[in-house]
Amino acid sequence: MVVTLLISIGIISLVSVFLAILLVIADATIGNYGVVKISINDGSKELEVQGGQPLLKALSQEGVFIPSACGGRGSCGMCKVRVVSGGGEYLPTELPWISDEEKQRNVRLSCQFKVKQDVAIVIPEELFLVKEFKTVVESIRDLTHDIKEVRLRLKDPTEITPKAGQYIQFEVPEYELTDERVYRAYSMASSPDDKNHVELEIRLVPNGICTTYVHKHLKEGDEIIINGPYGEFFLRDTDKNIIFIAGGSGMAPIKSMLLDMEKKGISRKASYFFGARSKRDLFLLDEMRALEEKMPNFSFIPALSEPQEEDNWDGEVGLITDVVRRMVSEGANSEAYLCGSPGMIDACIKVLDEVGVLPENIFYDKFS
């Protein structure tokens, strides 16, 4: 009985492998779709690309960049475009990210949707302003045991004009973890006033394609390609109080916003809650304290959730959500800007709702 079962499992496995090989061969031969046309925004721009590739990749090769925090893995849901014609059926990998309302408007996930025939799409006009930049790694510095600061000097073009809080996409070249060039999204930590540099804070993620490359291979003097800027995560022009909340490398866009506020003389009351596990996970404390000196209405509140005995920590203790709940009593006249993991963001939104911050005044940037 056991032998028969094992033989059956083996036969099924062989059949599955055979079918998979057939699909690969079919995609390379029968699936040779030739050159297809992409019409953008009622023909304001038209491209000819090789058919059969994801729309996201086809557009980027032609200098049209769609934001994608996950680099085309289908795990962030950001790279949405309207496919007016030539779309075909939805793929199962798209559906988790597409609402019923978006289906009615033929919104597709461009990293999953493959261009197999002439298509017409609609994208925001501002994406035509996104540029590709050749850069040089000017410096790399360890901020913590698992976060590196990477400072890039722009070579061509030499200037970028982002809003504080926006992000770029970092191109990772081929190496042992990837057989093709891929993009990953990172928030800019530098002040928008410095138009010749982009500063990133990159935390090491085990087996992460980009983070492993940055932490194990990237060197000063290396040339890196980026594109951007992207994103709707930036400081709104109001007179409301500000609640910043971040953890880990979520520091990057908040730091950029604070530098921009200091440069522009924005004097709104602002509190920055930064969560870390232990003292070794804290960084840029001196920079934050210096901003407190320059900005009388700004306060920086770091908190440790698991302080170690050797930390000799006398600051706030607990999850950052608990600290916010304790220290924010009235949030009706506040805006909140959050950056971190999806779990942290969701927990913070719940607490902010409890203290009276209106949903329309909560802005966030989730790591994918």
UniProtKB/TrEMBL annotation:
Cite the entry's keywords alphabetically: FAD, Flavoprotein, Iron, Transport
Classification via Pfam families: FAD_binding_6, Fer2, NAD_binding_1
Tell me the ranges covered by the 2Fe-2S ferredoxin-type domain, including all copies: 34-127
Q: CDD domains of this UniProt entry?
A: fer2
Annotated FAD-binding FR-type domain ranges read 130-236
GO molecular function list? iron-sulfur cluster binding; oxidoreductase activity
Q: Could you tell me the superkingdom of the organism this chain comes from?
A: Bacteria
Q: Which SUPFAM superfamilies match?
A: 2Fe-2S ferredoxin-like (SSF54292), Ferredoxin reductase-like, C-terminal NADP-linked domain (SSF52343), Riboflavin synthase domain-like (SSF63380)
- Protein's name in the database: Oxidoreductase
- Source species: Sphaerochaeta halotolerans
